[in-house]
Specification:
Structural class: mainly alpha
Oligomer: single chain
Helix content: 55-70%
Shape: elongated
Number of domains: 1
Distance between the termini: 25 Å
Order of helices and strands: HHHHH
Length: 173
Amino acid sequence: MRKLLDWYHMLLNTLLGVSVALLIIPVTLQMVSRLTGLIPAWIWTEEMARFFFIWMVMLGAMVAVREKTHFDVDVWPELSWRGDAMLEIGSTVLVLVFALVFVWGGVKFVSFGWNQTSELADLPMPFIFIAWPLTGATWLLFCWERLAKAVKALVSGAPLPEGKRDIATGSFL
């Protein structure tokens, strides 16, 4: 399962890079058309930039939850291994709640836009709206992995395996 999650994380990182690269194209076209008369002012570029931005944010949120950098605020002093494990469990449960809201609300969002198309590019809106439940489902997947590690550390009496904790030693939400 770990290898599958590692592969999925790598895929999300790759898609995140692609979405950033694709976002540059319509934004550059907008800038060039506004500042020069070299190309016509295409209105579809604004819509495409918005859609790429939505996917970039959602992909970044998925990656950040796996890397423990999204919902991470440094407010706790250095804690014992038991305190770290309990804090990890508490913060992961809260992220799980947000993930469930994203899945539940996202499914409603997709069903709301099922027969809609975008105004300018005539794209089916579920391609955009699916980002919300997919983000929530990915958070659920990554949070279950984090929760399992924290519970295992708490039960076994061993410290949490260090992940990407370069910023802080203790965190909550």
